[in-house]
Amino acid sequence: IIYAFVTYNLMSTVLYTMFAQPYHTLMALMTQDQYERSILTVLRMFAGTVTAIIINNITLPLVNFFGGGAGGWQKTMAVYGVIAAIIFFVVFANTSERIKPVAAKKIPVLEGLKALFRNKYWVMVLFVGVLVYIIMAIPGVFIYYARYILGDAMYLGQMMTFHFLPTIIAL
Predict the structure, then answer these.
(1) Contact 42, 171 (CB under 8 A)
(2) Would you say residue 12 has pLDDT above 80?
(3) Is 138 helix (H, G, I), strand (E, B) or coil?
(4) What is the pLDDT of residues 74-120, one digit of tens each?
(5) Longest dimension (CA), the chain
(6) DSSP class of 126
């Protein structure tokens, strides 16, 4: 359990942040036009949701194709890693920053934290963000529901498709 806790938190905090922060900041450095930024955001969210549906529908069949068990999972994740590396390279090679960032004023960390928590709107957004991440964690139990309640883990893809479908419709 400790291994799972450490590796999950390392992945979701350190590694995901290393990838996500520059990626999400990139839109602000590509254009100053708010409309273009909103289009880029919608396209990014749409592509992410469609990708999540695809991944959730093909992961268990791929694991079974590669022999199941730990080896099947490792081979499936290796395939995903290669695909992700190719996609990251394509994004890197075909994206350019057009806006030069403005130099920021240095503020001590403690002073910055105090200012953040005095800002009631930031606190409200923080609270909503925590709730969103809790809600986003709920699909993590779908595999157990499919396996132990529905009796077949292969239902996971369909469950995730119906989970993400409203997001695609809303976009």
Answers:
(1) yes
(2) no
(3) helix
(4) 999 999 999 989 988 898 888 877 777 677 788 899 999 999 999 99
(5) 57
(6) H
What value does the mean pLDDT of the chain take? Answer: 87
CA atoms of 114 and 118, how far apart (whole Å): 6
Q: Quick one: residue 131, left, alpha or beta (phi over 0 = left, psi -120 to 50 = alpha)?
A: alpha
Phi first, then psi: give them for residue 114, nearest 5 degrees.
Answer: -60, -45
Q: Are 29 and 101 in contact (CB under 8 A)?
A: yes
153, 72 Cβ separation under 8 angstroms: no
CA distances from 48 to 41, 65, 156, 171 (A): 10, 25, 18, 12
Contact residues for 42 (Cβ-Cβ < 8 A; gap 6+): 171
**54, 57, 60, 61: CA torsion to nearest 10:** -90
Give whole-number Cα distances, 1 to 11, 40, 44, 66, 140, in Å: 15, 39, 34, 26, 16
CA 99/CA 26 separation, integer angstroms: 10
Token pair of 6, please?
Answer: 């450490």
Phi-psi region of 34 (alpha: psi -120 to 50; beta: other; left: phi over 0): alpha
User: Residue 96, SS3?
Assistant: coil
Residue 54 CA to residue 103 CA, distance in Å, equals 41
